[in-house]
Amino acid sequence: MAGSRSIAPFLTAAGRPVSTPLKDVRTISRQMVGHFIENVVPCATLPGEVLDGDVTAVTRVCLELTGGVLDGRDLPGRLERIQAAAAGWAREGIPIDTIHTAVHEGFKLGFDLVTAHVSNHDHDHETVVGVARRLTDVQNMITSAVSMAYVRELRSVVSEHHTAVHTLTSALLGGQSTSTMARECGIEVAERYHVIALALPPHPEELDPSLDANVVARRKLRRVQAELANQCVGKVLSLLSVDGGTLLLPTSEFSESELDALIAALSTAAQVPVRAVTMPAPPADIPRAAEQVHELVEIVHRLDGESKVYRPHELAFEYQLTRQGPARDYLSSIVDSLESHPELLQTLEVYMASNMRRTQTARELFVHTNTVDYRLKRIGQLTGFDLNDITGLCYLRAALLIRAHRGSGRTPTLRTDRETRSRAG
């Protein structure tokens, strides 16, 4: 105890320091650890070397620190030793609630030891109050030290794991050798993966000028990452941004139906329609598969497809239409004549999106069905393709797909206005 300094007057009872029952710290620390094993359920599950080593040693340090505070002496270095132990427990995965429960039990035992010989005299009553206050202070010191060190180390562990996952995912997507890297990261490389491209559209609040769009976007991404961690329990490799990214899921761990459920859960968490395209591939083929699924998910995103998991065969028609060539240029030019008639172009888009249902189209556009009929007739006159004919229907449908993919995209002005009115209402 050399080098300690006085911080407050001694507390005494019956003519001796109240800290006297705590002097034999070695014996009492062993007794306390025995009590933890028998009465604190989580402690009983800890390995014997942890209980006999760090836990007993830290209990002894806590007793020394408590005795010093009761005696009004500051004992340097004790809190640092407690913090070092807490950091080690965090890295070993010992739950923090187990640590706090043991600390609480230790102080209950310590209070009973200290007050066992205090009489009921008024003077001793004041001593008990002083003991309770000082024990509360030192318990707060120890709990805070444990919590700060534990959380700091846990963040470091999470950061290391995140970096390892990021490095391994990048290596797989880049076609690099991953055997040595996987061993160093402690992550097993699967024989085959679902290679998934995700598209995350902007959250409606990202378009609200009164809000910080970057903050809204990052919150959306954090919700997706949290849900991904909850659903996949450490079995996913991912590279994500606020706009989407890539997931690698072992095919042995996730069925096709589970992929569908996962994307539905991510859509709910993100509060936006998440679109995904998946393709199975062994590690060596992941770069090629990733390139393909990202190209396909971009098509789905541009075409405003529904929120779900798409497989490449579902997008064969759309994919082929977007390939460069004279046929695509010709089909794209079919609807050029409608650019100067935005109401006709919008009617055609909504009519196709509603699967050629006149009544639903009229409802979407807030017009009479006769108006829809008139506009469809005008579209046929201007483009030269009759919407009542299967050939004309196919050509106009293809022209809209190509137009959307080339970046003109749908311009659902009316739908946006309706959503705005709905939010305002």
Total helices: the number is: 17
Q: Element order, helices and strands?
A: EEEHHHEHHHHEHEEHEHEHHHHHHH
What does the overall shape look like?
elongated
Q: What fraction of residues sit in β-strands?
A: 5-15%
Share of residues in helices: 55-70%
Strand order of the largest sheet: 6-7-5-8-9
CATH topology of the largest domain: Globin-like
Query: Gap between N and C termini, in Å?
Result: 71 Å
The residue ranges in which pLDDT falls below 50 over 5 or more consecutive positions are 1-6, 408-425
The number of distinct structural domains comes to 3
How does CATH name the architecture of the largest domain?
Orthogonal Bundle
CATH top level label of the largest domain: Mainly Alpha
Structural class of the helix and strand makeup?
Answer: alpha+beta
The residue-averaged pLDDT reads: 80
Radius of gyration: 34 Å
> How does the major sheet shape up?
5 strands, mixed
Number of strands: 9
Explained architecture:
This protein has 425 residues and is of the alpha+beta class. It is built from 17 helices and nine strands. Strand 8 (275-281), helix 10 and strand 9 form a beta-alpha-beta unit. The longest helix has 52 residues, at 122-173. It is elongated and about 110 Å long. The relative contact order is 0.06. Residues 1-6 and 408-425 have low confidence and may be disordered.
